[in-house]
Amino acid sequence: MNLNYLTISEAMDGLRAKQFSSQELTTACLEQIKKYNKKINVFITVTEYLALEQAQIVDRKINNGDKLNPLAGIPCSLKDVFCLKGAKATAGSKILQNYIAPYDATTVKLIKLNDAVILGKVNTDEFTMGSSTETSASGATRNPWDLSCVPGGSSGGSAAAVASAMGFYSLGTDTGGSIRQPACFCGIAGLKPTYGRVSRYGVMSMASSLDTIGPLARSVKDIALILEAIAGVDINDATTSREPVINYAAKLGKGIKGLKIGIPQEYFGQGLDPEVAAITDSAIKQFKKLGARIVKISLTYTKYALACYYIIVPSEISANLARYDGIRYGLSKSEGDLLATYLQTRAQGLGDEVKRRIIIGTYALSAGYYDAYYLKAQKVRTLIKQDFEKAFKQVGVILTPTTPRPAFKIGEKNNDPLTMYLEDIFTVPINLAGIPGLSIPAGFTKSGLPVGVQLLAKQFNEEDLLRTGYAFEQATDYHKMYPIID
User: Fold this and answer.
1) Catalytic site residues (predicted)?
2) Which member of 61, 79, 88, 413 is catalytic?
């Protein structure tokens, strides 16, 4: 039995039945990391000592007959924007290459309270800015299904870690699709919860009004277990909601008979890859077989979402990244006076994509342009949100392709930022609206690349979202397939 290829629920059952130990699970994952990490470039930091120590604690609890927490003894990873006390937190950037986190992020505290086993920190686009995990100062991560392709981004390290069995799940971030797009490209499940459902405290910010924390895992049930562990109000994050956290996993098996699923026409037009379109159509037919009612809907303002997003996000980036100045922490290039130190530190410490977005954001917020760009973008954002609110009066769940095409080749879009930004065209509207989105595996292209579909629900309705995804998963085998890396 390859222990590291189990789902979380299967591993939990095995631990409780004493079929294997947490140390054995952890060792299997660590061996997988040692075997394939150089080839795929997933882990920036491996916390082997911490992981084995945490596993030993769980094994003692099992031997003592203690009650186990839902994620107890299950090895996982963290996108390298999460603070893990005593470990490097680089955000994939030269400017933080030697930064050691002095505290745990709230989500890290919560999984530690659940006796999780933390294997280390995984690769990300620099400060989460990218759709391919190619902008990292630690180099590009590769897709386990095809090493010549990208794993998606910015949580590409998280998706690749799960897909290649270097851990059972990973915590990532999603500002415009950075969980759902890599989950799609790597053939796993990924959830962007409702904005405010999960605390952002201790996670490096990109765009504060859009950043969302969520899980990537092999199955929808695994996603449900993780969400329950990390969701909830946090006094350190004023944006978190007091909306009750439910037992999501217990609600999964209710079925979807009679559920109205909306299909927005705006997501099926020009630019959609024919194979992605065919796989999405097949998924729609499967949901119909499961008893769902398919309803055609319209999301009129979808076409403005990408332009709106790429004004709001750079504007917030220009403010959030001002803290990386070479004075308080991280890289410092002392060049005489204070201004010269700022300029040289940022020039040498930040990558091209980060600089590009800072410049765009500073311009959009500058005197004389604020009303024309940032303020107008916020008004359009409101219209996009209202679009979804109107749609959810007609349907319970919305289904779209997760991405317009499968994973592309490494280096294919590096010299064309606009084409790269278009990879997020189906995911960014969801962040602008603040609603939850779930990507699940839905099939494979003729060349063997995974394709996913995206399910959407109204704010804080993760229950129906997960139930719908679970119903599809139980009727198909796509989530059970693994890449052959050798």
Assistant:
1) 79, 154, 178
2) 79
